[in-house]
Amino acid sequence: MADNIDNDNTKSNDSPGTGAEDEMPLDIQPTDTGEKIVPILIEDEMKNSFMDYAMSVIVSRALPDARDGLKPVHRRILYAMKEAGITHDKAYKKSARIVGDVLGKYHPHGDTAVYDSLVRMVQEFSLRYPLIDGQGNFGSIDGDSAAAMRYTETRMDKITDELLIDIDKETVETRPNYDGSLQEPVVLPAKIPNLLINGSTGIAVGMATNMAPHNLTEIIDATLMVIDNSEVTIPELMQVVKGPDFPTAATILGTQGIRSAYETGRGKVRLQAVAEIEEMKKDKSRIIVTEIPYQVNKSKLIEDIAALVREKKVLGVSDLRDESNREGIRVVIELTRGTNPNIVLNQLYKHTQLQTTFGIINLALVDGVPRELNLKQLLQIYIEHRIDVIQKRTLFRLKKAEERAHILRGLKIALDHLDEVISLIRSSNDTETARNGLIENFGLDELQARAILDMRLQKLTGLERQKVDDEFDELIELIAELKFIIESDEKKYSIIKEELADVKERFGDERRTQIKAATGDIEDEDLIPKEDVVVTITNSGYIKRLPVDTYSQQHRGGKGVIGMDTKDEDFVVDIFVASTHDYILFFTNKGRIHWQKVYGIPAGSRQSRGKAIVNLLELGDGESVTAMIPVSEFVDDKYLLMATRMGTIKKSSLSDFSNPRKGGIIAVTLLEDDELVNVVLTDGSKEAILVSMHGKAIRFSENDVRPMGRSARGVRGMNLEAGDQVVSMDVVDETASLLTITENGFGKRTEFTEYRTMRRGGRGVITIVTSLRNGPVINVRSVNESDEIMLTSSEGIIIRIPVTDVRIQGRNTQGVKIMNVRSGDKVVGVARLKTGEE
Fold it and tell me: pTM of the prediction?
């Protein structure tokens, strides 16, 4: 190009210009070709060229159309298969043939891009509802590549017919292909809401889309809701559309990300693998992973788990293997003896892709412009598209019906004047003369005359003449119906509803991805019924809740029922009743406090062990829960009275504990060898009673203990003998009695009047004789006549009896047998059930 420039007429950009030369572009007219060379700034050229490129990527490659949910390459593949007749009811064809058709006719890009797009539409782990039925190797969830296109075969899937149906009825706009030789559809008719049910992923220039797949049944129900009520709100739609429904199932944790995505078009959804814990022989267990999060490479996931085990970031794994097959995913993680499987699973969720985040970006093209859309907007755009398709389809059918009716009118005229028509045709020298005669003599147009001349003789029979009359009458009714559809939006909506109901019946299925509340998520508590439940915790840290009526009432001396399947040395250490809407304050042996809503504690069956509390609370090394208190609200006029194993007591305002941090907060500062054994809730003016393992009890006024801050150490509550230690504490109630239970299943009730009030710090008085028969005291409870009690043994045996079955006795007695404890077993837990509250 430089050779064509006349240097005498050029002006350097560095040279200052004058007059009109500074304002006008410099045109150069070479003498040999007559071309003009216009100098422009490189910044302007880069800007314009990049904008053209960016818009091409956005509109023609990376983003789906909001109406049919397809990008151009996917649309061209399906249309090419439709044109070639490779439908679900025809034989499979080589993928290479389809790719060749798409490249040659519609998509002038690389064959790899087309084949990769085709492969993804086959993969059941990529699309919730695959659009292409494949035969051969199309890759795997382990990241394996598909076989070459010359080896695989494909055909359209059955559901894909619903995307292309009526495309031959002028329902969608078409445009010339890249070389202008053919026409291709701008969008597909899409009877199904493909964008929502299959989602889409794409990276454009300066923007990206990442739409989650959904359940077809839920999306159709939501579409019907929008049709029936245009003012429906997104929260109302969310009652039907629970959330994304991924092809690989798994579990969604929490609803905040879903709500954000549906309301704003953006949100983050946390996905967690589905894993089960199976008990094995010899105190061993294993974790079975059966579902993994969407778009997670299973093979890479297993490699990551193995690396964590090798690096000793995850301890207790003895074997790791992949037992997946055609039936589904099965990754087995075997654990060493005594390893807590819940702790290992929690670590795997934290450090591997067993738990991932799916960032939803509902970005799609609307009238050629990228827009972020909320759930209702996506449904409305789909409905508007279907209204347009039905309108165009009806206009097409009306045109065809009117054309046919016009022909039939001519045939009816001919049949009504059959002899004259036959005579005219016989007397005509040629076809043109006959046609002109028909037009002039019977008032027909050229189309009608041609149809009469083309009519076969069999049409002259009486039966055939009746068929013409019947067809004409049917067409007149059809034309009237089609015109009504064209004029009535209400009728169009009714047609959409009927079509969707048919699609739902034929292709609807159950939701795969389950949704459960995540810790820390805001719950709609009005949806959670208020009811009393039994909460239990074992010494090894398993917790669960279950209905109070799980345990039937028995009389004292009974053997009880199995309340929990326990391992060796795994037994219940605390059990109590609370409302599902209460807070549970968890006090640990280290003097720290955590809290959790009761409904946040996992429900279990009577025989289940529950869930490891380490998955609910962040406990430190050697830290275990020693006391749990249900609290409705945190107020200033309530106090927590705490007792330690070495006889120290402390009182603090309940409001001091209303905002515990994630890792808990200090409840009491302990000496090195001391532990927190019990905490009771008081109003600040009660009397409390401390009971020791050797059967000593001291009753003192709560006023003797001044309120202290959270980090205070407390004051002496009981002066213990050598080898003795405090086992429990309760609040004195003069209308009640003190129930004392020993390790061997004996116990009694004693009136509180038998315990005189002392100054705190004394040795106390005898409350029960701790003989060889009785064993040491394990707990005491203040009980009323209408109460029931529940005793738990170290083997998981539970008995529930009325308090009245335990008679009242004096302090210096041994009591009666309450629970028949087998050899080697012992009572470890006592709970009071208030019948009036049940």
Answer: 0.62
